[in-house]
Request: fold
Amino acid sequence: MRKLENSELDRKSVEDFKKAEKTPLIILLDNIRSLHNIGSVFRTADAFLVEKIYLCGITAVPPNKEIHKTALGATETVAWEYNNDVLEVITSLQKEGVDVWAVEQVEDAVFLNDFIPEEGKKYAIIFGNEVKGVSQKAIELCSGSIEIPQLGTKHSLNISVSTGIVVWDIFQKNYTKHKV
Reply:
C-alpha cells in the first residue's frame, strides 16, 4: 500500500466543480462564532458537492483570513450567500419546495441513522450557534429535527464535526450517484 500524491487524487478544477451536478443539499449556518468552524463547513461542502451554504446572523463571510485557513479555497468553489435573518431564508427555501430540517436535540427528533432522505427531494439543514444551538423560532419553522445519537457524557459535538457527520450520512444514503 502506498500513500497517494496530491497529483493522483483526480481533483476537480474550480471551473469543473462549478459545472458539476450538485448534491441537492443546502447548509444554513446561523450565528456561528468560530471562523475555523465556518471554513471547515466550506471544505465539507466542497467534498460532497453541496449545492449552497447560507451564512446567517453573526456568521462571518469570506473573504476572511481565518476562514481561509480551514476552507483551503473551498470558499471559491461552493456557492454561498449571506442573509442576516435565518427565518427569512427558511421561509424562502420552503416556498421553493426545499425541505428544511434543524440539526438539534429536541423532543421527537429523528436520529440521524433513522433519517431517510426522500429520492428527488432537496433538503436544507440548519446548524446553530456553538453554545445556544439552533434557535427555537427556527426549529418551529422546520419540518423536523435530526439528532446525532451520542452515548457519552457530553452529548455535544463541535459544529464542524456535526456538519461532517450529517452531510456524509445524507450524501451516502441518497446521493451516491455521483462518480466517486
The CA atoms of residues 74 and 146 lie 26 Å apart.
